[in-house]
Design brief:
TIM Barrel; 496 residues; 4-stranded mixed beta sheet; disordered C terminus; alpha/beta; globular; 8-stranded parallel barrel
Length: 496
């Protein structure tokens, strides 16, 4: 039997959180920093105060908007093939995203990220079995800040055929990325065939900044799947209690749902859940603590109450190296994400509270997700797996190495194969160099990168994507800083 989904909220508790969110939406509302959106909301019967940019949402409008949400969202590969369907019961994993630094495995030090790092991350993500979608791993620091996401997206599109997960609080950047999607798909519209998901966030508490909400407008108009990911901080931008934190978060998600559905009914929406606690002694935001994982499960329950797919962040941790803390925090968040019924988990390859990426960590997180998915499958009990005939045939003091039943099930998935976990005794391990998991992951990274990109983008599409970036740079009077071309030094640094 497959493991039952983890739950931390009763049905009555879910309903209470929903009803409290309705009270907040109706009585306090949200600040929306965009006249264009305020005008639209007023025309749709929301209560708008233009002077203080405050919007209140009547419960009837909330319920109406919830009724137009699709329960499943198809996501496509770069070549137009179906990648997966969010909401079909599967658990889908996304590498990245949006860090700044890269860990140099040989030294344990971190450095600023480059476009080349994104390219390597994309090549590795394209190869790893449990990575279903590629998130932008870092905001590369060798380009101008205004263009960093565009060059990162370009690097992914040119080096992986898997779908892309990205986020930008800019209307014009979202449009540019969507235009890139149209180039690679050859479609004038991405609605119903999108190879990308756009993540957008409120600013907690209860505030939509202009850039984010106008980007939401573009995403909804274009029919791109929208991932709503508020990130309230317990005790800072939301109540310190988990229930209060969840209520603020849920209210902000609902506000995004309402706005998206009033712009374009039927806009596919994902309920994002990124929970952060706050270490008061150190004044530091944390994502790897057990409270965050409890909320990962709660977020999935709220999403499924609204009958839409859920997303959470995992494998997450607050450690700054590949150590034991990283291991236990990552495994806890992964299990909470996958067995907690989240349709999609995002952040493979990251650590240090989401500030740093590591190619070796991506390999380890890939394995961690494989383990968690196998754990979720549980134990299948039927006539074949019970193996009664085989047991009777072998009898006392027999062996099963040569039995037909064993041979039949060797590659059935009953026992999951692992890439970098140790499976040998001490003597064999010593003979093979006494390598730990990080070292074995580094070997696998080198092997994959040595093979280079296996799914390159055609030259004409590469030129078309570069043209979009050039147009954007020209519009803002920007010039690309070509530091990333110094690949020789980077290769020496990484010892590839």
């Amino acid at each position: 039997m497959q493991l039952t989904d983890l739950k931390v909220l009763s049905e009555n508790e879910i309903l209470t959180i929903h009803e409290n969110s309705l009270v907040i939406l109706e009585s306090v509302g949200l600040r929306v920093e965009s006249k264009k959106i305020l005008d639209l909301l007023q025309k749709k019967s929301c209560i708008v105060n233009f002077e203080n940019e405050r919007v209140k949402f009547p419960p009837s409008i909330v319920e109406e908007c919830l009724s137009t949400l699709p329960s499943q969202i198809p996501i496509f590969k770069r070549d137009g093939d179906l990648a997966f369907i969010l909401g079909d019961g599967g658990r889908y994993c996304v590498s990245g995203h949006n860090a700044v630094f890269v860990l140099v495995n040989e030294t344990g030090e971190r450095r600023n990220s480059t476009v080349k790092d994104v390219e390597n991350f994309a090549i590795l993500s394209d190869k790893l079995s449990e990575v279903d979608m590629v998130g932008v791993p870092v905001m590369p620091q060798d380009v101008t800040p205004q263009t960093t996401l565009l060059y990162a997206i370009q690097a992914i599109l040119e080096n992986s055929k898997k779908p892309i997960f990205f986020s930008s609080e800019s209307e014009i950047i979202n449009q540019a990325v969507i235009d890139m999607g149209k180039v690679i798909t050859g479609k004038e519209k991405l609605k119903g065939c999108s190879p990308m998901i756009s993540q957008l966030s409120t600013t907690s508490p209860l505030y939509w900044e202009r850039g984010a909400v106008e980007a939401l407008y573009i995403v909804a108009q274009e029919g791109i799947p929208l991932d709503l990911l508020p990130q309230p901080i317990a005790g800072v931008t939301a109540p310190y209690t988990l229930a209060g934190l969840l209520t603020v978060h849920n209210t902000e998600v609902l506000s995004g749902i309402i706005i998206s559905q009033l712009i374009h009914p039927g806009t596919p929406v994902i309920y994002g859940a990124a929970w952060t606690t706050y270490e008061m002694k150190q004044a530091n935001v944390l994502i790897g603590r057990p409270e965050s994982s409890l909320l990962r499960i709660a977020g999935a329950q709220m999403a499924h109450y609204y009958n839409i797919p859920s997303h959470t962040t995992a494998p997450d941790n607050d450690a700054n190296s590949h150590d034991e803390q990283a291991a236990w925090e990552k495994m806890l968040s992964t299990l909470a994400g996958i067995i907690g019924a989240n349709d999609m988990i995002v952040n493979l390859g990251m650590f240090g509270t989401g500030m740093t990426i590591s190619l070796e960590q991506l390999v380890m997180d890939n394995e961690m997700c494989r383990i968690a998915k196998r754990f979720r499958q549980g134990i299948e009990v039927n006539k074949d797996t019970l193996a009664l005939d085989s047991i009777l045939q072998v009898g006392p003091r027999g062996e099963y190495l040569t039995s037909e039943h064993t041979l039949h099930h060797l590659r059935s998935g009953e026992h999951v194969p692992l890439d970098v976990s140790n499976g040998t005794n001490f003597e064999v391990w010593k003979q093979k160099g006494s390598k730990n998991t990080t070292e074995k992951s580094s070997d696998l990274v080198s092997s994959i990168l040595l093979g280079g990109c296996q799914n390159p983008l055609s030259q004409d599409k590469q030129k078309a994507i570069q043209s979009i970036i050039n147009q954007y740079e020209k519009k803002l009077g920007l010039r690309y800083i070509a530091l990333f071309k110094l690949t020789i030094n980077l290769k020496k640094e990484r010892k590839l």
